[in-house]
TrEMBL record, chains A, B:
UniProt keyword list: Flavoprotein, FMN, Monooxygenase, Oxidoreductase
SUPFAM superfamilies: Bacterial luciferase-like
Protein name, as recorded: FMN-dependent oxidoreductase (Nitrilotriacetate monooxygenase family)
Similarity field: Belongs to the NtaA/SnaA/DszA monooxygenase family.
Length: 442, 442
């Protein structure tokens, strides 16, 4: 079989467009609704998607005035979804800066057991002062320090998952021995950030480790991804930028001693689908009109690290913005936005319109065949191993993609018509990791 | 309607008896099985139980050799169970010593939203050096310090749940306003243990606050319960001790300015049911024979704070055990066991047999009518508002209780035949708490 596309659905209540909740069709309480998330996940599973994904930060992210801001904790929401799905992977975001490794490693091990090997962890270091202030800090740890902690956090987590040998449990009723004692081992970790004795109180996950996912594109983020990540979500607005990122990540993975095929690169795209090109463009324009500019300006100012008053709706971005080095979070997002605004000479209003749709991700607007063509073009020209699908409006956007774009790609032999594996790793063609403690102790 | 009994099912894979996993009927992998937990919860819901409950500690609790030791993280497991149940309450244990309030308050708020108002939190401070060593500490915080932290943890958590007003969300599509900005408020908490800015990133839970549950019976534990707990799990081996505890707790609740009816006391009982009294006693004896004594001695020694070598199977407990004041955890459990052993002049082997069945909880052994009679007697004589049902063997123990004991109590008008409410608070007859920040800001 030829190389196959991979698809992840980025769950986001009424859609990734800022204003999607305001459409007549939208349920403005979908963000808190299990039923709404069950429906989205069922559509993706029926279309044989590899996974669904939830972003997260331990802070009230956006202004609650502007759009549905409350977010259910992702590992819990995905645990609920595990009960009503059978094959699709379940990827939750969680922060290495504001969790303890024992607790988080255990939650992901539990999700992997509950789902029969379908758990993934999108590892984030959590930018922003506001999050820090929810955890006893007056200011956030530096970008580099956050990534150092993330690196040690992963070291501890993988050791904890490996603290039970795969053959530890014998369940010998007659002898009264449930597990072989020396096959469950302390890890005795003592590092710069953490001291964790172990073992974990959950046996090794069905997948060995949950799938490790990453999304930061800063220099620190890319180095971290090259070392740890098995799937990478990226935001690149043009084909050329996607190709450059793809090549860079694969090269870094090789430099880190890894097989580049075991690092799956998934650019985020916003498919906007119409029966005709004009109809698709009209849908895009309708959404831009619904954005409330005062809220959007405040968000943009936060990412750029400037006073909102300096951003004038009908003027281009100010010339003297802080550089990527001068801000402590959203580094790659900031640079992507600034470059985009300057390259296309956009006003702040125009830039907000573009960002409202995809927040820096590429919008693929057109008929089903046009969208499928663009996906295939990226896939066959060194820009993607698959895509992180971010519909502007949900559930209609994923229903349209699943029913109209996916069949075209299946006919072309580029996407599965049935699941061939049962675990998330199997869907993405990734190996089950060997047990690191096993190698030492035998 | 007369005063009604309440029932909680304490979930524990193959049963609360140490050796239950060794029975021919038992699935020795039930501890990691979502299907096994779904079955138990369905039986309890079909019998109109108020709730199910999961104990927990962030450490490998028992020797993995002796019995199934791996435990799925309770908030995730209950989130899964929320998806396949509609009425029954879902109570998870979580530690105030080894979590951050922002994260934990959010998980319980999320569970409450996911389940439509069915979440409960069994608040524990987590005894033991082993747990401390999973979180960067060489020794555990003192008992008193743990309870001080727990108290502030609850203060922060309740403020976070109240940080969204009940009427914050207006979802006005036309005006583009999702929430009224000043109805979502920072909490600005600065205390001895925590600094948390807030607001929470989840709207107020359907129940206002999840049901607050507590189980420690030490002096610090009782004071904490009187202040915060709305349902209390207790372990008392005799009727007289249960009556004394019940009266003490209600008195302390009144002293704390609370309505004593809003503190529901639920003793743990181990129902062992047979067609005849002799058959029930035979089942009890069969389980005692299956206990592996070397493992049980090690567990007992940990609770008592002594070297396992000092416990001789066929001799009584040593005379010079450490006192309750001299140990830092399991304080009330230790005293209950020591008093029991001395009162009945039990050998270590006999004591282990009793503890294997109920770990200090009362065993109700007999025919269905005898078990129902004992429950009614406790309920009507100031010893209980209901019971925490801890079957020695699962699922058979809860199936027998649900099909044979519950109908007798329903016929006697002591237990509901249909749910009358939809939330966990409604099942237990507890009020939805007012919003504390609301009172201040209006």
């Amino acid at each position: 079989m030829s190389r196959q596309l991979h698809f992840n659905l980025f769950l986001h209540d009424t859609g990734h467009h800022e204003a999607s909740w305001r459409l007549p069709e939208s349920d403005p309480h979908a963000n808190l609704s299990l039923a709404a998330h069950q429906h989205l996940t069922r559509v993706a599973e029926d279309a044989r998607f590899d996974s669904v994904f939830l972003a997260d930060s331990p802070v009230l992210w956006s202004d609650p005035g502007r759009r549905p801001a409350g977010k259910l904790e992702p590992t819990l929401l995905l645990a609920s979804l595990a009960a009503t799905t059978t094959r699709i992977g379940l990827i939750a975001t969680a922060s290495t800066s504001y969790n303890e490794p024992f607790n988080l490693a255990r939650r992901f091990a539990s999700l992997d057991h509950l789902s029969g090997g379908r758990a993934g962890w999108n590892i984030v270091t959590t930018a922003g002062e506001a999050a820090a202030r929810n955890f006893g800090l007056d200011e956030q740890p530096q970008h580099r320090t956050r990534y150092e902690r993330a690196d040690e956090f992963l070291e501890v987590s993988t050791k904890l998952w490996d603290s039970w040998a795969d053959d530890a449990i014998v369940a010998d009723k007659g002898a009264g021995v449930h597990a072989v004692k020396d096959r469950v081992r302390a890890i005795g970790h003592r590092g710069k950030f953490f001291q964790v004795e172990g073992p974990l109180n959950v046996p090794r996950p069905p997948q060995g480790h949950p799938l490790l996912v990453q999304a930061g594109s800063s220099e620190n983020g890319r180095e971290f991804a090259a070392k740890w990540a098995e799937a990478i979500f990226v935001a690149q607005p043009t084909l050329a930028e996607s190709q450059a990122f793809y090549a860079d990540l694969k090269r870094r993975a090789v430099a880190a001693g890894r097989n580049p095929d075991h690092v799956v690169v998934l650019p985020g795209i916003v498919p906007v689908i119409g029966d005709t090109p004009a109809q698709a463009r009209e849908l895009e324009a309708e959404l831009e009109r619904l954005i409330a500019p005062e809220f959007a300006v405040a968000t943009l100012a936060t990412v750029l690290g400037v006073d909102p008053a300096r951003l004038k709706l009908d003027e281009p971005l100010p010339a003297d913005l802080p550089t990527e080095d001068e801000i402590e979070g959203h580094k790659s997002r900031r640079t992507l936005i600034v470059d985009w605004g300057r390259r296309e000479n956009l006003t702040v209003r125009q830039l907000i319109g573009k960002l409202g749709g995809g927040r820096g991700h590429r919008t693929f607007t057109g008929t089903p065949v046009q969208v499928a063509d663009t996906i295939q073009h990226y896939f066959e020209n060194g820009a993607a191993d698959g895509f992180n699908i971010m519909p502007a409006v949900l559930p209609s956007g994923i229903e349209a993609f699943a029913s109209r774009v996916v069949p075209i790609l299946q006919e072309r032999g580029l996407f599965r018509t049935e699941y061939t594996g049962t675990t998330l790793r199997e869907h993405y063609g990734l190996p089950r990791p060997a047990n690191s403690l096993e190698l030492i102790s035998r």
